[in-house]
Amino acid sequence: QVHLVEFGGGLVQAGGSLRLSCAASGLTADSGLTSRVFALGWFRQAPGKEREFVAAITWLGGNTYYSDSLKDRFDISRDTIKNTMYLQTNSLKPEDTAVYYCAASHLFFRSDYAHEPSEYPYWGQGTQVTVSS
């Protein structure tokens, strides 16, 4: 079973940076011979708003996908040895305040729909990011 845990949220002043981490387990089966997931992604949800796509990365190939509105300030990466995905957030704004969620896809992943929450059956519990003005 895929299990995801986010770390690194907190309170930061506008203009600051945070690096979020997503520790993943259960990504492989059959003693590591078979991958259970194809891609991992970051989403965020602010109070009263829908869940919003931030970025995604294919686990083995490292191909990245970004929200057009965030790609200049956010950077997604992964460490396949540590089974951890990261989101470097820079030049943070108060409107970036949200709960940030880590998500994982199945092996069947439609890259054209990387921004859709429905592509990701596995989710972490979220980490709060609060940006003060």
Q: What is this entry, summarized?
A:
This protein is mostly beta strands.
Keywords:
single chain, 133 residues, mainly beta, 7-stranded mixed β-sheet, 4-stranded antiparallel β-sheet, 0% helix, globular
Describe the structure.
There is one protein chain. The chain is mainly β and 133 residues long. Helix content is 0%, strand content 49%. It starts with a strand and ends with a strand. The relative contact order is 0.30. The mean pLDDT is 93.
Outline the fold blueprint.
Layout: E1 3-7, E2 10-13, E3 18-25, E4 28-29, E5 34-35, E6 39-45, E7 52-58, E8 64-66, E9 74-79, E10 84-89, E11 98-104, E12 122-123, E13 127-132
Parallel strand pairs: 2-13
Antiparallel strand pairs: 1-3, 3-10, 4-5, 6-7, 6-11, 7-8, 9-10, 11-12, 11-13
Return residue spans where pLDDT drops below 50 for at least 5 consecutive residues. none
**What percentage of the residues does DSSP assign to strands (E)?**
over 45%
Determine the mean pLDDT. 93
- Give the helix proportion (percent range): under 10%
Number of strands: 13
Number of helices: 0
Taken in chain order, the helices and strands follow as EEEEEEEEEEEEE
Distance between the termini: 40 Å
Structural class comes to: mainly beta
Q: Given the C-alpha coordinates, what overall shape results? A: globular
Major sheet: size, sense and barrel closure?
A: 7 strands, mixed
Radius of gyration (CA) equals 14 Å
